[in-house]
Design a protein that fits this description.
Helicase, Ruva Protein, domain 3; Tetrahydropterin Synthase, Chain A; four-stranded antiparallel sheet; 11 helices; 48% helix
Length: 285
């Protein structure tokens, strides 16, 4: 039987290079497998799966947003970690980049934001889960897929994207024209949305329950202030307009030029240019 002294440093390093596991874990696996590298890999995988299961209970508040655009398809993923140190590691960034690219080929519905647990259950998700467990072993932390979304480009349209704040905020925008002016406007609007976090493209796109909750609150406030019922409705409508100006993308003051609305930016770039849709992810948001 192999002894500890017969496991060379070179064999340990070779196993580490193949698996990404820690040096001591590699050495223990080689000792247990009597120097058989393939058996040692199986042992590391089993141990890694057990450790990964324990790590899954640990909180994840750091991470990254990754966007990939190719062949008329755009994807954005949120991958979460326990620490910023791991989120900036080459292994973590490589996994995030590969996941965003792989999303283009998975059976994900266009425009639907998929939670990480659901993503791992679809066809092809088992391979992602395998990579995820390997990454957890390699970095020694809980790593989770937070959310993912894919856009398939509509006719004559174009995508633009923006990633900000150390890859913690990402925005995808689809506009209705692929000309240079349209794409430039879309890039500016993506940056704008990263800063302002709009709730929808227009007031009609803001979730109805949010609109009704705001309207109810404003009505109660007006009545509590002793406003006559006859003018309460007008007061509420005026305040709702401000709500839309804060939350509807097209109504917002443009961050690069607050004297303009986002809709003005579109109009300058093309008479019929429109934002078809957008999605914004923020790590942990």
């Amino acid at each position: 039987m192999e002894t500890m002294t017969q496991i060379t440093a070179g064999a340990v390093k070779a196993l580490r290079d193949r698996t990404g596991a820690g040096m001591m874990d590699c050495k223990r696996a080689l000792i247990e497998s009597e120097g058989d590298a393939e058996r040692a890999i199986d042992l590391l995988r089993k141990a890694g799966a057990a450790k990964a299961a324990k790590r899954e209970a640990r909180a994840v508040s750091e991470g990254t947003i990754r966007i990939e655009i190719r062949d008329g398809c755009a994807s954005m993923v949120e991958v979460l970690s326990e620490t910023d140190f791991v989120a900036r590691s080459e292994a973590f960034e490589g996994f995030s980049r590969d996941l965003a690219d792989r999303l283009h080929d998975l059976p994900v519905q266009d425009g639907e934001t998929v939670q990480g647990d659901a993503l791992l259950q679809i066809e092809g998700g088992d391979a992602i889960e395998g990579r995820l467990n390997e990454l957890r072993v390699q970095v020694g932390e809980n790593v989770q897929v937070g959310r993912a979304v894919r856009y398939d480009l509509g006719e004559n349209g174009a995508f633009a994207s923006y990633v900000h704040f150390g890859n913690r905020i990402g925005v995808l925008v689809e506009v209705s024209d692929s000309g240079d002016a349209a794409i430039e406007a879309a890039r500016g609007i993506a940056m704008h949305a990263a800063a302002t976090n709009p709730r929808g493209v227009s007031p009609d796109d803001i979730p109805e329950e949010e609109v009704e909750r705001e309207r109810k609150l404003l009505t109660e406030q007006a009545l509590e202030q002793g406003k006559p019922a006859s003018i309460t409705e007008k007061i509420v409508e005026g305040r709702m307009r401000k709500f839309y100006e804060e939350n509807a993308l097209l109504w917002q003051a443009y961050v690069r030029d607050p004297d303009m609305k986002v809709r003005d930016v579109l109009r300058e770039a093309g008479e019929d240019l429109a934002v078809r849709r957008f999605v914004r992810f923020e790590v942990g948001g």
